[in-house]
Amino acid sequence: MLCPFCQHRKDRVIESRESRGGYVIRRRRECLSCLRRYTTYERSEEIPHMVVKKDGRRERFNRSKILAGVLRACEKRPVPRKELDQIVERVERRLQSSQEGEVKTEVVGKLVMEQLKEIDKIAYVRFASVYREFRDVREFQDEVERLHKRQARNR
Q1: CB–CB of 31/6 below 8 Å?
Q2: d(Cα 123, Cα 135) in Å, to the nearest integer?
Q3: Which of 44, 47, 60, 74 has a 20 to 30 A CA-CA distance from 138?
Q4: pLDDT given for residue 2 in this prediction
Q5: Statement to judge: residues 93 and 38 lie in one domain
């Protein structure tokens, strides 16, 4: 492991503990050269899932892209960062537990929207507007009305 401060290759592990429900190990390390401390995360390598884009291209599943989209949707909303990390974790676990090696972006988007709908309705609509590529205000209004009706039924 390279020290992020001085790029020295030798360090020592000060502390290790499970994180994110046991799927990740968090390690505190100390560089043996500059003596600065930093944190690393280890996760078991799973069979890489491929995401099939709308234009047919395939690329490896990238959890940071999901997190970036969720962060954008929740910008200036009262949603703790920990909840956003949990959304990404749950989506990734659902994909890992499936038997399919490939998944369409539509499936990933729907999984994220299901999670956002439960946490923050505004973030849900923001994410949906990008994911579903609303072309005009009417499509946006239709989605808000559907959300409002669903919410009224659940009361």
Answers
A1: yes
A2: 18
A3: 74
A4: 93
A5: no
Residue 58: its H or E element: strand 58-60
What is the distance between the alpha carbons of residues 151 and 153, in angstroms, rounded to a whole number?
Answer: 5
Read off the pLDDT band of 9 (50, 70, 90): very high
Pair 116, 73: CB distance under 8 Å? yes
Q: Please list, in sequence order, all residues whose beta carbon lies within 8 angstroms of the beta carbon of residue 91, skipping any fewer than 6 positions away.
A: 66, 108, 111, 112, 115
Q: What single-letter amino acid sits at 33? A: S
Report the candidate in 80, 86, 67 with the shortest Cα–Cα distance to residue 21: 86
| Residue 19 counted as domain residue | yes
Q: What is the pLDDT of residues 20-78, one digit of tens each?
A: 667 789 999 999 999 999 999 887 765 568 889 989 999 988 889 999 999 999 999 99
pTM above 0.85, yes or no: no
Question: What is the total count of domains within the chain?
Answer: 2
Domain membership of residue 25 (yes or no) is: yes
